[in-house]
């Protein structure tokens, strides 16, 4: 079941993070870790590239609704799907301003290099185990929310 409001607009006072993850079990872990370590945001889940692009396009009606960050699983289920979506996002005149963090179980140097070549903003190898996810999200939150200045859409 998708965690998508019917209008594609959260109308929540919280900033949103778009999580593009095809595996429901991984989404469950990511979602709970975000709730516990990054409660300032609302996570929006999309399972496939087409849904993610539809969501982003719907946000263009009010660009203040755009997510502040995108977490993109590289293998959706193939890495080419993740790379294609990354290319689409980074080719768009507005979406390219949203930082995209690749999440992957792969630590293959080719996957990492190609993700950066296609202008991902960061690459995180998915942790194994819930406690490691909590630590990862805490570090992620500190960096992306407390240290970095993100673009503002108005």
Explain what you see.
Keywords: Phosphoprotein. With 154 residues, the chain is of the alpha/beta class. It has a domain at 28-39 and 46-68 and 82-130: 3-Layer(aba) Sandwich (Rossmann fold). 42% of the residues lie in helices and 17% in strands. α1 (24-37) packs across α5. The longest helix is centred in the last third of the chain and has 18 residues, at 130-147. The radius of gyration is 14 Å and the shape is globular.
Please give the structural blueprint.
Elements: E1 15-20, H1 24-37, E2 41-46, H2 49-59, E3 69-73, H3 79-91, E4 100-104, H4 109-117, E5 122-125, H5 130-147
Parallel strand pairs: 1-2, 1-3, 3-4, 4-5
The helix count comes to: 5
- Spell out the CATH superfamily of the domain at 28-39 and 46-68 and 82-130: Response regulator
Mean pLDDT equals 91
Low-confidence stretches: 1-11
List keywords for this structure.
five-stranded parallel sheet, alpha/beta, 154 residues, Rossmann fold
In brief, what are we looking at here?
The protein is an alpha/beta fold. It is built from five helices and five strands; from the N terminus they run E-H-E-H-E-H-E-H-E-H. The protein has a domain at 28-39 and 46-68 and 82-130: Response regulator (Rossmann fold, 3-Layer(aba) Sandwich), CATH 3.40.50.
